[in-house]
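Anyone up for a design puzzle?
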């Protein structure tokens, strides 16, 4: 019986060798993304459907908590950004975010529904990182729910400037 991998052997073999050497993989990757658990209702999901929390509506009263798992060293020479995608985000909305209990400031719009902020490496810990998000100010322009559909930590190495 044939399986799907037989059609892609020439493509897969170098990838498998690359993945077998973590040091080579780290050295070749300039941009690594660590997503929060997401998947409801039908999006791609990388861990376990039972534990996904996104997408979820933002509240003014109660923070939405999501976890980002980062097991790579993210120190010197790495630029870190936290990115949040929120459906129906209004220009006058304000979202308060804490990473491991400490505020993340300096948010800027990156398109109509994405917010981006730089993150100091000292705010992160190796392993699970807790992100709390709350709708601090709700614009009156829309009564529709503001729903967080993605939360991502992006790590861009400054030494491998190929991308």
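Challenge accepted. My sequence:
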């Amino acid at each position: 019986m044939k399986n799907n991998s037989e059609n892609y052997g020439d493509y897969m073999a170098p990838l498998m060798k690359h993945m077998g050497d973590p040091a080579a993989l780290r050295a070749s990757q300039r941009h690594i993304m660590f997503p929060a658990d997401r998947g409801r209702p039908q999006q791609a999901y990388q861990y376990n459907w039972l534990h996904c929390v996104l997408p979820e509506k933002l509240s003014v009263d109660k923070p939405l908590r999501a976890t980002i798992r980062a097991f790579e060293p993210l120190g010197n020479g790495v630029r870190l950004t936290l990115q949040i995608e929120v459906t129906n985000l209004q220009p006058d909305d304000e979202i308060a975010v804490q990473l491991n209990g400490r505020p993340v400031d300096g948010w800027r719009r990156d398109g109509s529904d994405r917010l981006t902020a730089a993150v100091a490496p000292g705010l992160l810990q190796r392993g699970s990182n807790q992100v709390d998000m709350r709708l601090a100010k709700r614009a009156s322009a829309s009564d529709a729910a503001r729903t967080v559909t993605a939360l991502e930590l992006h790590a861009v190495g400054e030494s491998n400037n190929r991308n």
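A detail worth pointing out: The longest strand covers residues 127-137.
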